[in-house]
Design a protein that fits this description.
The complex is a heterodimer of chains A (181) and B (446). Chain A contains nine helices and no strands. With 181 residues, chain A is an all-alpha fold. Chain B has 446 residues and is of the alpha+beta class. In chain B, the strands form two sheets. Chain B has a seven-stranded antiparallel β-sheet. Chain B has a seven-stranded antiparallel β-sheet with strand order 8-9-10-14-13-12-11. In chain B, a hairpin with a 5-residue loop joins strand 4 and strand 5. Classes of the chains: A mainly alpha (181), B alpha+beta (446). Chains A and B meet through helix 1, helix 2, helix 3, helix 4 and helix 5 of A and helix 1, helix 2, helix 3, helix 8 and strand 8 of B. Chain A: InterPro entries: RNA_pol_sigma-70-like, RNA_pol_sigma-70_dom, RNA_pol_sigma-E_actinobac, RNA_pol_sigma70_r4, RNA_pol_sigma_r2, RNA_pol_sigma_r3/r4-like, WH-like_DNA-bd_sf. Chain A: It comes from Kitasatospora indigofera.
Chain lengths: 181, 446
């Protein structure tokens, strides 16, 4: 064994150190993308981290910094959204994720708000959902959103405004009432 | 404000409240992600490769995590599973398979049907019964049965314990792997001290019944930006059980003030807790996964890298404190002027190189990124020299041969990346690093 087996995988540990602070936020984004399907969201995050791992090992190993990944947090989100969209393309268009809404402590109206929004997101096409999540949850610019989705800024603007209109139709006035704070 | 703007404003509020409500089980996500990454890596392809469900099941990354990152961590102090497992799994048929390349549910041995399920309440009860006198508040738990369309997960219990000297979070988790699985034993090997901060104490002991007990007294944050202590005991049993208890000197593992100088249970108490017979029933309630398929052998093992490198070192220098994993190895040189850690990556970049040459790199052209400013040797090998720093300074030669063989050799001015420099230059010069990296002894494995 030459003694190499005496130490655990130090480099894998470094990778985990690099991404451990980001898993929570990735997961929350994934839950929105999947409109509350937490199982699918967990799968999506794991798949994303798996891809990040390969990129990280391929490109660099020094001190957990990667030449290919300047900003691991933003990069992970890009990888995740692209993975999500690729997965959705492969899925049957008739399927819709079932909501699996968490019930943390809080106001009842919060819970209704979440259910209402997730249900509406679940009724929208995956690319619309991705645009809304990137723009309104991730707070990405139109240009950044276009980059992530491998689309043009113009197409993202169009999709964004259509998605908003569709969401408004689905939600009616309920969002305004529930968001009254 | 227009109604459009008002709607966008409401949406931002609603989406924030909705997103923030989801709490991740960080450990399971990370271990699952690492496992998928390793598998992708082993397949030697960074692109999405569609494949069937492989016979990988509950896997062994919790210990790696513990070693590298100071302990499984939750998200915002939420309870997490202690022993990481594929608790999440892939969505079952109800939600459709999201990705043909994604791993499926843990593979269960048909011959070993699990006994009756253990509930989360029972897990908490078992933990409570093994604690010394004090007040106990249950913070979270999960049973063995899995929920909904989730496969059976790793049961755990998380409590806040107070023996009168300050609140402390304590978590226990149980999972089961194939008996004798290498990944099981990996989790009870002490982490590589070269990568640990000062003050970490670890013992790994073979017990009379053939099980191995590791007790690790470390820190929640590897960089010790907060001095929260995270102590743990992990037992790998001959029946494939992995029982792990962790405790902190704070009421939550993260984002909570330190409440006491040290966690409440002593190393001996931690060891007694995980070796207790009361976990037998939990272990029996879990399915026994099949053993992992062995690595393909296309990668250089750490031992192979160490052996080849040993013959390439300048006269008088020998490897000590060796470590590594497939495709990677490290060791310490001591030339009498202070320790100098050396690490190597030996990788097959033929695919990345081909993508670079054809301009078809999908996830970023790593060859361009790493070798854009490279010098090219007469045989076509690209070489880059770089001086960088972690905590210690590191000199690195990165090389890529025309056939795609990539070898990186780095040498530090200390015995490990996280240790302060003890010398002005590493034990190997730039020329010596380059000689190792470009040696013809590195041959691309087909």
């Amino acid at each position: 064994m030459g003694g190499a087996g005496a130490a655990r995988d130090a480099k894998d540990g470094e990778f985990l150190e690099l991404v451990s602070g980001r898993a929570g936020h990735l997961y929350r984004s994934a839950c929105l993308l999947t409109s509350g399907d937490t199982h699918l969201a967990e799968d999506l995050v794991q798949e994303t981290l798996g891809r990040m791992y390969v990129l990280w090992r391929r490109s660099a190993w020094r001190s957990g910094r990667s030449a290919a990944i300047d900003n691991p947090g933003a990069y992970a989100h890009t990888v995740m959204v692209r993975t999500f969209l690729a997965q959705q393309r492969r899925r049957s268009s008739t399927e819709r994720p079932t909501g699996d809404v968490p019930e943390p402590a809080g106001h009842e109206s919060d819970s209704t708000l979440r259910l209402t929004l997730l249900d509406a997101l679940g009724r929208m096409p995956a690319r619309d959902r991705a645009v809304l999540v990137l723009r309104y949850w991730e707070d990405r610019s139109v240009e950044e959103t276009a980059e992530v989705m491998r689309s043009s800024a113009g197409a993202v603007r169009t999709r964004s405004s259509r998605a908003l209109a569709r969401l408004r139709t689905l939600l009616g006035d309920s969002l305004a009432e529930l968001a009254a704070r | 404000m227009s109604t459009d703007e008002k709607f966008e404003d409401d949406l931002i509020y609603a989406i924030s409240r909705t997103g923030d409500a989801f709490q991740a089980e960080g450990t399971a996500l990370l271990s699952g992600g690492l496992r998928r990454g390793r598998r992708r890596w082993r397949r030697g392809s960074a692109a999405a490769v569609a494949g069937g469900v492989t016979a990988l099941a509950l896997v062994a990354t919790g210990g790696v995590y513990l070693a590298g990152a100071g302990g499984p961590r939750g998200d915002g102090g939420q309870p997490v599973t202690v022993a990481a497992a594929d608790g999440s799994g892939a969505p079952a048929s109800g939600t459709g398979a999201p990705d043909a390349g994604a791993p499926g549910t843990p593979v269960q041995s048909a011959a070993a049907a699990p006994a009756a399920a253990v509930t989360g309440e029972q897990m908490a009860g078992l933990l409570k019964a093994l604690l010394p006198p004090g007040t106990v508040t249950v913070a979270g738990s999960r049973g063995s049965a899995g929920t909904g369309n989730q496969p059976p997960g790793a049961p755990y219990a998380s409590v806040v314990f107070d023996d009168g000297h300050g609140q402390a979070a304590i978590q226990v988790g149980v999972q089961r792997q194939a008996p004798g699985d290498a990944s099981l034993l990996d989790q009870v090997k002490c982490p590589d001290p070269k990568f640990q901060p000062a003050g970490v104490v670890c013992t790994s002991t073979l017990l009379a019944d053939g099980s191995t007990l590791m007790v690790l007294q470390g820190y929640e944050y590897p960089d010790r930006r907060v001095d929260t202590k995270a102590w743990s005991a992990t037992l790998a049993g001959q029946d494939g059980r992995l029982v792990q208890v962790q405790e902190w000197n704070a009421a939550k593992e993260k984002d909570a003030p330190i409440t006491r100088p040290a966690p409440p249970l002593t190393p001996a108490q931690l060891g007694a807790l995980v070796t207790d017979k009361s976990w037998d029933a939990v272990v029996q309630a879990l399915p026994t996964p099949k053993p992992q398929s062995p690595a393909t052998g296309k990668e250089y093992s750490a031992e192979e890298i160490l052996a080849i490198t040993a013959g390439l070192l300048p006269a008088g220098l020998t490897e000590s404190e060796t470590g590594g994993q497939p495709g990677y190895a490290n060791f310490v040189l001591n030339d009498g002027k202070g320790k100098s850690m050396v690490e190597l990556n030996v990788q097959d970049w033929s695919r990345a190189l081909k993508e670079h040459q054809q301009g078809t790199a999908k996830d970023g052209d790593v060859v361009e990124q790493v070798f854009a400013k490279a010098r090219t040797l007469p045989d076509g090998t690209k070489v880059v020299f770089e001086k960088g720093a972690d905590k210690a300074a590191v000199w690195t030669v990165d090389s890529l041969r025309p056939d795609g063989m990539r070898v990186v050799v780095g040498a530090y001015t200390a015995g490990g990346p996280k240790q302060p420099s003890v010398r002005t230059a590493p034990a190997l010069t730039e020329a010596q690093l380059e000689a190792i990296a470009t040696s013809p002894l590195w041959v691309l494995k087909k």
